[in-house]
Amino acid sequence: MDWDDPLRHLAPISEHPAKKSTVLSSEPSSDQELASLKVNVKLDRFGLASARHNRAACILGFFFQFLEDGGRKVLAAEILAWIDIEDNLFELANHLVAAILLPFKASGGKAPPPTSRPSIFADEDNEIEQTVAFIEPSRRDQTKLKRQCLRREGYQCIYTGYFDRRSVKNKEVTLPQKAKCGGTECAHIIPFALGNFNEKNALETENKALIWWTLYRYFPALQGKIDAASINQLGNVITMFTEVHDVFGDFQLSLWPQENHSYEVTLMVPQFCIESKSGSSIICIEQHDADIPMPDPEYFKVHHIISQVLEVSGLGREIDELLEAADTLDPNGSSDLGLLLSQKMLIHTWV
């Protein structure tokens, strides 16, 4: 493997209870407020039984609060069907953490670095095709993707408006007066690691298939748009200043679609001092090359919803502590101790 996949030590992800228990089918309620009230009342009562019950109720409640209508209807049907089968609700809460929150948090902002070299030909695409034949496939893909991203975004970070330093140096773009430049990265919205797996590893293949099954179940808008094989698509990447990418990849900054490729910024880091290019909470992603597809708003929605659940539930901080503990004991993730801790982290019982 030519890239250090942050999810390579995934232990078996806990099964979704629907695999063994039928969810009662029912027609979608025409009164969404009444349906939401029923779910919230049921979860409140369930949560009173014990601290463990309360923990499961909170996890399910936060997902129910932030999911869009398609995913909320699925989750509502599950909660109402299984409210008297407490083991199913515990399993459901654990599964949502293990199959969605944990993989996203652990792999956000991580992808193979593109090849770094100065541009020497005007025809950048031909240069890439001719000079990277012997470079690892993951890095080769990232190189081409970043070039396309940069052209689409006008060689600028979509959040700060900073120009890409290398592109300015190579005279691919002229730095306007008073404009700033800096290092930029090709940032995946849905993490790259969800599409990168070793097909010879049966457990890894099964785990990532289960992650995608779960994503489609609660984010049905993703079906037909993206999967493990198409993670490296232009609709799933944006150009970001390195420090902004760090925060975005950590799910501490998210973008919610508005109209005409405008997005509302949500920041979970009060001390983050890098101002948006607009100076406000609304930014616009401009298309400088009409031949290159724009980022897909549905992917930003998924990123935002997961960011909100991680933050409000406090699970983001818990996962960070586990990841930091794993890095402290084994920075390379290669020793038996590191492997054992990684496996423990990924089969952690959350409720």
Task: Tell me what you see in this structure.
47% of the residues lie in helices and 8% in strands. With 351 residues, it is mainly alpha-helical. It folds into 2 domains: 17-107 and 314-346, no CATH class; 124-196 and 231-301, no CATH class. This is HNH nuclease domain-containing protein.
Overall number of structural domains: 2
Q: Supply Rg.
A: 21 Å
Helical proportion, percent range: 40-55%
Amino-to-carboxy terminus distance: 34 Å
| Sequence of strands across the biggest β-sheet | 5-6-7
Extract low-pLDDT stretches.
117-125, 127-135, 335-342
Number of helices: 12
How much beta, percentage-wise? 5-15%
What does the main sheet amount to? 3 strands, antiparallel
**Bulk shape:** globular
Q: Which class of secondary structure composition applies to the elements?
A: mainly alpha
- What is the number of strand segments? 7
Order of SSEs: HHHHHHEHEEHEHEEEHHH
Mean pLDDT: 85
Protein name: HNH nuclease domain-containing protein
Organism: Immersiella caudata
Pfam families: HNH_2
Domain HNH nuclease: 182-254
